[in-house]
Design a protein that fits this description.
Radius of gyration: 24 Å
Number of helices: 9
CATH class: Mainly Alpha
Distance between the termini: 39 Å
Number of domains: 1
Helix content: over 70%
């Protein structure tokens, strides 16, 4: 019989961040190459032009997906069976389609159908019908990312809202608050503490998935790197810098998210 006391599990927060040290070393090495090596500097100068496109696509799609996700979460929690089933159907379908397939479908199937439907509906109101090419490939990509990520974000909102105790809602109802006021002043502010960390993870994931827009020819970081590599045949140097730029953005955001999670845990402790 072993009388020794069971070992205490070691928390991730107690580990020395060797992963961060290794990442920093790689980042410093690549940063030095970008500064000192003319080829790396040239690649970086070209990729910088795509950072704005990547940021615009990510922020716009995430904002729209969050708004749509909140509406879907409210629909899933609705008292109406029909509304719940429609919202659940949408969420499950969108979560089951790979993002790249959804991107192609919205760009080359959904957009032409939307344009045809718009022209049929407003055929007598304008002499200049809407054309498919009037909707840029970048906005088609944003719409696809919005529709895809809204399903995942809806589940985040739903879980966060359900995490708030039912007694909070009953107490607010007893005070005479309307359904909207209960949600706005009582439920959602408390759910936000649970929602923020996974919502941040989805934002980081969207930064990486924004690279998929390059398949439509959108001039983001990945597309510019692909064009440069194809013309110069400097694939290793180019994709080293591409990976460096994405890693820089995602690791910094990940560290900020970890700090936010620790802060929220301290606030939630009694």
């Amino acid at each position: 019989m072993n009388d020794s006391a069971p070992s205490t599990p070691i928390s991730k927060d107690q580990d020395f961040p060797w992963w961060l040290l290794a990442t920093a070393v790689i980042g410093l090495w690549l940063g030095y190459r970008i500064i000192s090596d003319e080829l790396y500097s040239q690649v970086f100068a070209i990729l910088v032009k795509g950072i704005g496109v990547t940021a615009f696509v990510t922020i716009t799609a995430f904002t729209l997906a969050s708004l749509l996700g909140l509406l879907l979460a409210a629909a899933v929690l609705s008292r109406s069976v029909i509304v719940r089933q429609i919202a659940t159907f949408y969420i499950e379908i969108m979560r089951g389609i790979p993002m790249l397939v959804l991107l192609f479908y919205i760009a080359f199937v959904g957009t032409p159908l939307l344009v045809n439907g718009f022209n049929s509906l407003f055929s007598g109101l304008t002499d200049d019908p809407l054309r498919t090419r009037d909707i840029s490939l970048m906005w088609r990509a944003i719409i696809a990312l919005t529709l895809g990520y809204s399903a995942f974000i809806a589940e985040v909102f739903r879980a966060g809202i359900l995490a708030v105790g039912g007694g909070q809602n009953e107490a607010a109802k007893a005070l005479g608050l309307s359904t909207w006021d209960r949600f706005r002043f009582v439920i959602f502010p408390q759910a936000l503490r649970t929602i923020l960390p996974p919502l941040g993870n989805d934002f980081i994931a969207l930064i990486k998935d924004s690279s998929l827009v390059s398949v439509l020819g959108v001039a983001d970081i990945t597309q510019l790197g692909k064009i440069y590599a194809a013309g110069s045949f400097r694939f290793m140097e180019t994709y080293n810098v591409v990976a460096y730029v994405y890693l820089l953005m995602t690791v910094l955001l990940s560290l900020m998210l970890r700090r936010l999670e620790r802060s929220l845990r301290r606030q939630n402790k009694p």
